[in-house]
UniProtKB/TrEMBL annotation:
Organismal lineage: Eukaryota, Viridiplantae, Streptophyta, Embryophyta, Tracheophyta
UniProt protein name: Myb-related protein 123
Compartment list: Nucleus
Gene Ontology molecular functions: DNA binding
Matches recorded under PANTHER family: TRANSCRIPTION FACTOR MYB8-RELATED-RELATED, TRANSCRIPTION REPRESSOR MYB6-LIKE
Length: 264
DNA sequence: AACTCGGTCAACCGCCCAAAA
DNA sequence: ATTTTGGGCGGTTGACCGAGT
Protein backbone atom coordinates (compact mmCIF):
# COMPACT_ATOMS: atom_id res chain seq x y z
CA UNK A 1 0.00 0.00 0.00
CA UNK A 2 1.04 3.57 -0.51
CA UNK A 3 3.69 4.87 -2.80
CA UNK A 4 7.22 3.70 -3.13
CA UNK A 5 9.79 5.89 -1.41
CA UNK A 6 11.42 8.45 -3.71
CA UNK A 7 14.95 7.86 -2.54
CA UNK A 8 17.00 6.49 0.24
CA UNK A 9 18.65 9.14 2.36
CA UNK A 10 21.79 7.09 2.79
CA UNK A 11 24.85 8.07 0.80
CA UNK A 12 23.45 11.40 -0.29
CA UNK A 13 25.37 14.65 -0.39
CA UNK A 14 24.43 17.39 2.00
CA UNK A 15 25.32 21.03 2.41
CA UNK A 16 26.34 23.48 -0.26
CA UNK A 17 25.83 22.54 -3.88
CA UNK A 18 28.84 22.35 -6.20
CA UNK A 19 28.87 23.96 -9.65
CA UNK A 20 28.88 20.50 -11.20
CA UNK A 21 25.79 19.44 -9.27
CA UNK A 22 24.07 22.67 -10.29
CA UNK A 23 24.85 22.03 -13.94
CA UNK A 24 23.58 18.46 -13.78
CA UNK A 25 20.31 19.67 -12.27
CA UNK A 26 19.92 22.50 -14.79
CA UNK A 27 20.58 20.17 -17.71
CA UNK A 28 18.14 17.61 -16.42
CA UNK A 29 15.33 20.12 -15.89
CA UNK A 30 15.96 21.73 -19.28
CA UNK A 31 15.43 18.35 -20.89
CA UNK A 32 12.73 16.88 -18.68
CA UNK A 33 11.02 19.84 -17.06
CA UNK A 34 10.18 20.47 -13.43
CA UNK A 35 8.32 18.07 -11.16
CA UNK A 36 8.75 14.43 -10.17
CA UNK A 37 11.48 15.59 -7.82
CA UNK A 38 11.81 12.19 -6.26
CA UNK A 39 12.92 10.71 -9.57
CA UNK A 40 15.51 13.35 -10.36
CA UNK A 41 18.43 12.11 -8.25
CA UNK A 42 18.26 8.67 -9.81
CA UNK A 43 17.58 9.78 -13.38
CA UNK A 44 20.04 12.68 -13.34
CA UNK A 45 22.69 10.84 -11.38
CA UNK A 46 22.71 13.31 -8.50
CA UNK A 47 23.54 12.25 -4.98
CA UNK A 48 20.89 14.53 -3.53
CA UNK A 49 17.40 13.86 -2.27
CA UNK A 50 14.48 15.10 -4.34
CA UNK A 51 13.59 17.73 -1.81
CA UNK A 52 17.05 19.18 -1.95
CA UNK A 53 16.90 19.29 -5.77
CA UNK A 54 13.57 21.05 -5.70
CA UNK A 55 14.80 23.63 -3.22
CA UNK A 56 17.99 24.29 -5.13
CA UNK A 57 16.07 24.77 -8.37
CA UNK A 58 13.30 26.94 -6.97
CA UNK A 59 15.48 29.14 -4.78
CA UNK A 60 18.61 29.46 -6.86
CA UNK A 61 18.80 27.89 -10.29
CA UNK A 62 15.50 28.90 -11.89
CA UNK A 63 16.21 31.19 -14.86
CA UNK A 64 13.55 33.73 -13.91
CA UNK A 65 15.07 34.51 -10.51
CA UNK A 66 15.96 38.15 -10.06
CA UNK A 67 19.42 38.77 -8.67
CA UNK A 68 20.63 41.75 -6.71
CA UNK A 69 19.34 43.92 -3.94
CA UNK A 70 15.67 44.33 -3.13
CA UNK A 71 14.53 47.66 -4.55
CA UNK A 72 12.62 50.29 -2.59
CA UNK A 73 9.44 49.42 -4.53
CA UNK A 74 9.87 45.75 -3.74
CA UNK A 75 10.53 46.56 -0.11
CA UNK A 76 7.36 48.63 0.14
CA UNK A 77 5.40 45.84 -1.48
CA UNK A 78 6.82 43.25 0.90
CA UNK A 79 5.87 45.38 3.88
CA UNK A 80 2.34 45.84 2.59
CA UNK A 81 1.92 42.21 1.73
CA UNK A 82 3.32 41.10 5.07
CA UNK A 83 0.83 43.36 6.76
CA UNK A 84 -1.89 41.64 4.79
CA UNK A 85 -0.69 38.07 4.78
CA UNK A 86 1.62 37.63 7.74
CA UNK A 87 4.44 35.11 7.42
CA UNK A 88 3.01 33.45 4.34
CA UNK A 89 6.19 33.83 2.38
CA UNK A 90 5.22 31.83 -0.63
CA UNK A 91 2.12 33.95 -1.15
CA UNK A 92 4.14 37.12 -0.75
CA UNK A 93 6.79 35.83 -3.13
CA UNK A 94 4.09 34.94 -5.64
CA UNK A 95 3.28 38.61 -5.97
CA UNK A 96 6.85 39.80 -6.36
CA UNK A 97 8.19 38.57 -9.70
CA UNK A 98 11.62 37.01 -9.61
CA UNK A 99 11.88 36.76 -5.85
CA UNK A 100 11.69 33.52 -3.91
CA UNK A 101 9.91 32.84 -0.65
CA UNK A 102 13.23 31.96 0.96
CA UNK A 103 14.78 35.23 -0.15
CA UNK A 104 11.89 37.30 1.13
CA UNK A 105 11.78 35.39 4.39
CA UNK A 106 15.50 35.94 4.90
CA UNK A 107 15.24 39.59 4.00
CA UNK A 108 12.39 40.07 6.41
CA UNK A 109 14.08 38.25 9.26
CA UNK A 110 17.41 39.96 8.82
CA UNK A 111 16.44 43.46 7.76
CA UNK A 112 12.88 44.42 7.12
CA UNK A 113 11.26 43.01 10.23
CA UNK A 114 13.49 45.04 12.49
CA UNK A 115 13.05 48.12 10.34
CA UNK A 116 9.26 47.88 10.42
CA UNK A 117 9.25 47.22 14.15
CA UNK A 118 11.47 50.23 14.79
CA UNK A 119 9.29 52.47 12.63
CA UNK A 120 6.14 51.28 14.37
CA UNK A 121 7.69 51.92 17.76
CA UNK A 122 8.74 55.40 16.69
CA UNK A 123 5.31 56.14 15.27
CA UNK A 124 3.56 54.98 18.45
CA UNK A 125 5.90 57.03 20.55
CA UNK A 126 5.34 60.15 18.47
CA UNK A 127 1.58 59.78 18.53
CA UNK A 128 1.60 59.07 22.24
CA UNK A 129 3.61 62.19 22.85
CA UNK A 130 1.24 64.25 20.73
CA UNK A 131 -1.67 62.80 22.72
CA UNK A 132 -3.23 61.43 19.55
CA UNK A 133 -3.68 57.96 20.93
CA UNK A 134 -4.16 56.32 24.26
CA UNK A 135 -1.65 53.78 25.46
CA UNK A 136 -2.41 50.48 23.75
CA UNK A 137 -3.55 48.64 26.83
CA UNK A 138 -6.21 51.23 27.52
CA UNK A 139 -7.52 51.47 24.00
CA UNK A 140 -10.77 49.58 23.54
CA UNK A 141 -9.89 49.08 19.89
CA UNK A 142 -6.69 47.30 20.74
CA UNK A 143 -8.57 44.12 21.45
CA UNK A 144 -10.60 44.28 18.29
CA UNK A 145 -8.38 42.41 15.93
CA UNK A 146 -5.14 40.59 15.93
CA UNK A 147 -3.76 40.45 12.49
CA UNK A 148 -1.31 37.62 12.58
CA UNK A 149 -2.00 35.39 9.66
CA UNK A 150 -0.80 31.87 9.40
CA UNK A 151 -0.65 29.09 6.90
CA UNK A 152 -4.15 28.69 5.58
CA UNK A 153 -3.83 27.84 1.91
CA UNK A 154 -6.46 25.21 2.28
CA UNK A 155 -8.48 26.51 5.17
CA UNK A 156 -12.09 27.32 4.67
CA UNK A 157 -13.44 30.48 6.14
CA UNK A 158 -17.12 30.56 6.70
CA UNK A 159 -19.49 33.40 7.08
CA UNK A 160 -20.38 32.05 10.47
CA UNK A 161 -16.76 31.61 11.33
CA UNK A 162 -16.10 35.18 10.41
CA UNK A 163 -18.95 36.30 12.64
CA UNK A 164 -17.60 34.18 15.41
CA UNK A 165 -14.11 35.51 14.94
CA UNK A 166 -15.17 39.10 15.14
CA UNK A 167 -17.94 39.03 17.67
CA UNK A 168 -17.14 36.36 20.19
CA UNK A 169 -14.13 37.40 22.22
CA UNK A 170 -13.41 33.77 23.07
CA UNK A 171 -13.10 32.94 19.43
CA UNK A 172 -11.16 35.94 18.27
CA UNK A 173 -7.82 34.36 17.60
CA UNK A 174 -6.77 35.67 14.28
CA UNK A 175 -8.82 37.35 11.69
CA UNK A 176 -8.17 39.81 9.05
CA UNK A 177 -10.04 41.60 6.40
CA UNK A 178 -8.20 43.28 3.63
CA UNK A 179 -8.85 44.61 0.20
CA UNK A 180 -8.25 42.35 -2.75
CA UNK A 181 -7.60 45.52 -4.70
CA UNK A 182 -4.59 46.27 -2.61
CA UNK A 183 -3.15 42.94 -3.58
CA UNK A 184 -3.97 41.13 -0.41
CA UNK A 185 -6.21 38.52 0.97
CA UNK A 186 -9.81 38.99 1.85
CA UNK A 187 -9.98 37.07 5.03
CA UNK A 188 -8.04 34.47 6.85
CA UNK A 189 -8.30 32.72 10.13
CA UNK A 190 -6.64 30.04 12.12
CA UNK A 191 -9.25 29.74 14.83
CA UNK A 192 -9.94 26.09 15.41
CA UNK A 193 -13.27 26.90 16.94
CA UNK A 194 -14.26 29.09 14.08
CA UNK A 195 -13.26 26.42 11.58
CA UNK A 196 -15.62 24.02 13.20
CA UNK A 197 -18.63 26.28 12.74
CA UNK A 198 -20.87 25.01 9.99
CA UNK A 199 -22.13 27.26 7.29
CA UNK A 200 -23.62 26.94 3.86
CA UNK A 201 -21.47 29.80 2.65
CA UNK A 202 -17.83 28.92 2.49
CA UNK A 203 -14.87 30.80 1.10
CA UNK A 204 -11.67 29.13 0.14
CA UNK A 205 -8.85 31.54 0.88
CA UNK A 206 -6.57 30.01 -1.68
CA UNK A 207 -9.17 30.51 -4.39
CA UNK A 208 -9.96 34.02 -3.24
CA UNK A 209 -6.32 34.94 -3.38
CA UNK A 210 -6.04 33.60 -6.85
CA UNK A 211 -9.34 34.93 -8.11
CA UNK A 212 -8.72 38.64 -7.76
CA UNK A 213 -12.31 39.41 -6.86
CA UNK A 214 -13.58 42.91 -7.33
CA UNK A 215 -14.17 45.35 -4.51
CA UNK A 216 -17.90 45.34 -5.23
CA UNK A 217 -17.98 41.58 -4.85
CA UNK A 218 -16.11 41.94 -1.64
CA UNK A 219 -18.54 44.56 -0.49
CA UNK A 220 -21.46 42.32 -1.35
CA UNK A 221 -19.93 39.74 0.92
CA UNK A 222 -19.81 42.31 3.68
CA UNK A 223 -23.42 43.25 3.08
CA UNK A 224 -24.54 39.65 3.26
CA UNK A 225 -22.60 39.28 6.43
CA UNK A 226 -24.07 42.42 7.85
CA UNK A 227 -27.61 41.37 7.07
CA UNK A 228 -27.14 38.14 8.93
CA UNK A 229 -26.11 39.93 12.11
CA UNK A 230 -28.32 40.22 15.08
CA UNK A 231 -29.35 43.68 16.12
CA UNK A 232 -26.55 45.32 18.04
CA UNK A 233 -23.85 43.14 16.55
CA UNK A 234 -23.46 44.85 13.24
CA UNK A 235 -21.90 47.95 14.71
CA UNK A 236 -19.22 45.81 16.30
CA UNK A 237 -18.53 44.11 13.03
CA UNK A 238 -18.49 47.44 11.28
CA UNK A 239 -16.01 48.79 13.76
CA UNK A 240 -13.73 45.86 13.26
CA UNK A 241 -14.05 46.13 9.54
CA UNK A 242 -13.27 49.78 9.71
CA UNK A 243 -10.28 49.22 11.94
CA UNK A 244 -8.92 46.49 9.79
CA UNK A 245 -9.63 48.24 6.54
CA UNK A 246 -8.45 51.64 7.60
CA UNK A 247 -5.19 51.54 5.77
CA UNK A 248 -6.10 49.38 2.85
CA UNK A 249 -9.66 49.86 1.78
CA UNK A 250 -11.15 52.91 0.22
CA UNK A 251 -14.74 52.46 1.27
CA UNK A 252 -16.96 55.38 0.43
CA UNK A 253 -18.53 57.47 3.16
CA UNK A 254 -22.02 56.19 2.30
CA UNK A 255 -20.84 52.62 2.53
CA UNK A 256 -19.44 53.13 5.95
CA UNK A 257 -22.02 55.44 7.44
CA UNK A 258 -24.47 52.66 7.91
CA UNK A 259 -21.90 50.52 9.60
CA UNK A 260 -20.11 52.75 12.02
CA UNK A 261 -22.84 54.96 13.37
CA UNK A 262 -22.39 54.51 17.07
CA UNK A 263 -19.25 52.66 17.81
CA UNK A 264 -16.35 54.83 16.78
C1' DA B 1 47.24 39.93 12.73
C1' DA B 2 43.94 37.66 15.52
C1' DC B 3 39.78 37.48 17.50
C1' DT B 4 34.82 38.47 18.35
C1' DC B 5 30.41 39.69 17.00
C1' DG B 6 26.48 40.39 14.25
C1' DG B 7 24.26 40.08 9.74
C1' DT B 8 23.14 37.42 5.74
C1' DC B 9 21.45 33.62 3.26
C1' DA B 10 21.59 28.78 1.43
C1' DA B 11 20.20 24.63 3.06
C1' DC B 12 17.96 21.63 6.10
C1' DC B 13 14.14 20.13 9.29
C1' DG B 14 9.71 18.87 10.50
C1' DC B 15 5.08 19.31 9.74
C1' DC B 16 0.78 19.19 6.94
C1' DC B 17 -2.16 17.63 3.37
C1' DA B 18 -3.52 15.93 -1.14
C1' DA B 19 -2.81 12.19 -3.96
C1' DA B 20 -1.35 7.67 -5.12
C1' DA B 21 -1.54 2.85 -4.36
C1' DA C 1 -11.32 3.10 3.44
C1' DT C 2 -6.74 3.12 4.72
C1' DT C 3 -1.87 3.70 4.46
C1' DT C 4 2.00 5.88 2.74
C1' DT C 5 4.45 9.21 0.18
C1' DG C 6 5.72 13.55 -2.39
C1' DG C 7 5.45 18.19 -2.56
C1' DG C 8 5.03 22.45 -0.39
C1' DC C 9 5.40 25.33 3.39
C1' DG C 10 7.36 28.17 7.42
C1' DG C 11 10.85 27.89 10.95
C1' DT C 12 15.57 27.12 12.13
C1' DT C 13 20.44 26.26 11.62
C1' DG C 14 25.04 27.02 10.58
C1' DA C 15 28.64 28.52 7.34
C1' DC C 16 30.44 32.48 5.69
C1' DC C 17 31.78 37.28 5.57
C1' DG C 18 32.83 41.96 6.90
C1' DA C 19 33.26 45.42 10.51
C1' DG C 20 34.99 46.58 14.80
C1' DT C 21 38.31 46.08 18.54
Amino acid sequence: MGRKPCCSKEGLNRGAWSAIEDQILIDYIKTNGEGKWGNIPKKAGLKRCGKSCRLRWLNYLRPDIKRGNISQEEEDLIIRLHKLLGNRWSLIAGRIPGRTDNEIKNYWNSTLGKKVKAEQAKQSKDELEKGKIQPLAETPQSTALRTKASKCSTCLVTQEAYKAEIINADLVHEARLESPKSGGTVLSTTSEEAHSVNSALEFDIGELLASDISESEFWNYCQVNKNSMEEGESSGVARNMWLSSDQHLQFSEEMLTDWIRDDI
